[in-house]
Structures are given as structure tokens and as C-alpha cells.
Amino acid sequence: MGTHQGLINRGGGSLEKHTVERAFVLKENFYCRECGGWIYCPEMNRKGTNDQGEPIEEIGEGCLTKGPEGDFFACPDCGCRHYLKD
Q1: CB crowding 60-84: b at 16 or more within 10 Å, else e
Q2: Which helix (H) or strand (E) holds 82?
């Protein structure tokens, strides 16, 4: 369900980064692919509206980090990055 590439953290050790589908995150509990730590659950979603004014579910405010390669979830346990894919 995702890809990974090496990423170097500040401590000099290897840190992984993966991709995760937006649709999956909005509907399922999401755990880190590296350490198994909990990252996100659908109860954290917020209600929004699309361009047509229809109600939609969105990822909760402040849950994603913005980076040069896109928005990502950072695992609170190991720091692994999970980049959001539409």
C-alpha cells in the first residue's frame, strides 16, 4: 500500500518515509509501518465542504506536517514519515 525510501534524521541514523492513501487514513485506524505506533484515527477527522458545498470528511487540523515533498504524518514514536497520497 505504500513505498519507502531512506531518509536521514538529525541524529544521523536512518529514518524511513512511506506513502499512505488519504482515503485509508480517513476511514481506518492508522499505525506506523516501521514501529507499529499509533498515528491517526477517523475520530480525529473534521467535517468540511467541497467546492459544490457538499459535506466531506477531512484530516483533522494540525495532524499533518507540511514539508517540501508534501504533507506527511510523523510517527510520534520513531519519527518515520508517512506522506499523504490522494
Answers
A1: eeebbeeeeeeebbbbeeebbbbbe
A2: strand 81-85
- Asked whether residue 81 carries a pLDDT value surpassing 70, the answer given is yes
Q: How many CB atoms lie within 10 A of CB 26?
A: 16
Say if pTM beats, i.e. exceeds, 0.90.
no
How many Å apart are CA 31 and CA 13, to the nearest integer?
Answer: 21
Task: Output the CA–CA distances (angstroms, integers) from residue 46 to 9, 14, 19, 25, 74, in the order listed.
Answer: 31, 34, 21, 13, 19
